[in-house]
Specification:
Layout: E1 3-7, H1 16-26, E2 31-35, H2 36-39, H3 47-55, E3 59-65, H4 73-82, E4 100-106, H5 133-136, H6 138-146, E5 150-151, E6 155-157, H7 165-196
Parallel strand pairs: 1-2, 1-3, 3-4, 4-5, 4-6
Helix pairs in contact: 1-7
C-alpha cells in the first residue's frame, strides 16, 4: 500500500472526530489504518514490526489530536522506539529516505485560533495561542528532515469537540480527497525510485 495511516488517539472509539476520520481513511484505496492504542495498550511498541510497516509504504500519516501543542504519549513513544539511529537517521540509515511524512491533526480550538501569530502584549486574556499551526508542527518537520523524508503540509480539523454532523461529514470528504492525492503522489515517488534503481515500477492501481 502507498500510505500508512498511524492513528494515535487514546479514546478513538469514543472520539467522534478522529473515529470518523479514521473510518473515512479506511475507504481510500492504498491506505492502511494502524491504530496504535489498539495495538499497544501497554505502550510496549514492537520496533521491528513497526519498521517493517513503514518500509512497506511510501508515505506515513500520523493522525492524532493536538495534546498540549504536541502529540499523544503513545505516538511520542512510537517515534522514540521506531525511528532508531542506523535505521531512520545516522550513518548507513536509508530505510526512510524519500518517504513522505504528514500529519492529520484535530484541535479543540478554532481555525482562527491557529491562523496567525499574535503578539502576547496585544492579547488581553493571556491564554490565547500566540503561534500559528505551522509553528507548532516545526519539531515534526525537523524530524522528517532528519529521517530524509519529504514533509507534506498537515490536514487539520478544528473545533473537533464541537463539530456538528454536516461539518464532520464535509471534513471526512476533504480527508478522503487529501489521502487519495497523497497516495497517488506516494505511488508516483515509488515508481520514480524503482525506475532509478533499475527495478520494475509498481502497477498503477
Amino acid at each position: 500500500m502507498a500510505v500508512l495511516l498511524v492513528l494515535a488517539h487514546p479514546g478513538s472509539p469514543s472520539s467522534r472526530g478522529n473515529a470518523a476520520l479514521a473510518a473515512a481513511g479506511r475507504t481510500v484505496p492504498g491506505v492502511e489504518v494502524h491504530d496504535l492504542y489498539d495495538a499497544y495498550p501497554h505502550f510496549f511498541v514492537d520496533a521491528r514490526a513497526e519498521q517493517s510497516r513503514v518500509e512497506a509504504h511510501s508515505a506515513v500519516v500520523f493522525q492524532h489530536p493536538m495534546y498540549w501543542y504536541s502529540a499523544p504519549p503513545l505516538l511520542k513513544q512510537w517515534w522514540d522506539t521506531v525511528l532508531e539511529e542506523g535505521w531512520a537517521y545516522g550513518r548507513g540509515a536509508t530505510a526512510t529516505i524519500g518517504k513522505t511524512w504528514a500529519h492529520a491533526i484535530t484541535t479543540a480550538g478554532s481555525a482562527r485560533a491557529y491562523a496567525h501569530a499574535v503578539d502576547p502584549s496585544d492579547e488581553p486574556t493571556g491564554r490565547a495561542n500566540v503561534f500559528p499551526l505551522s509553528d507548532y508542527v516545526k519539531p515534526w518537520l525537523q524530524s522528517a528532515r532528519l529521517c530524509g523524508m519529504r514533509w507534506h503540509p498537515p490536514f487539520a480539523v478544528h473545533e473537533a469537540e464541537r463539530i456538528d454532523a454536516p461539518a464532520l461529514d464535509a471534513a471526512c470528504e476533504r480527508y478522503r480527497a487529501w489521502l487519495a492525492a497523497l497516495a497517488a503522489s506516494a505511488d508516483g515517488l515509488s515508481a520514480e525510485a524503482a525506475t532509478r534503481a533499475g527495478a520494475t515500477p509498481p502497477r498503477t492501481r
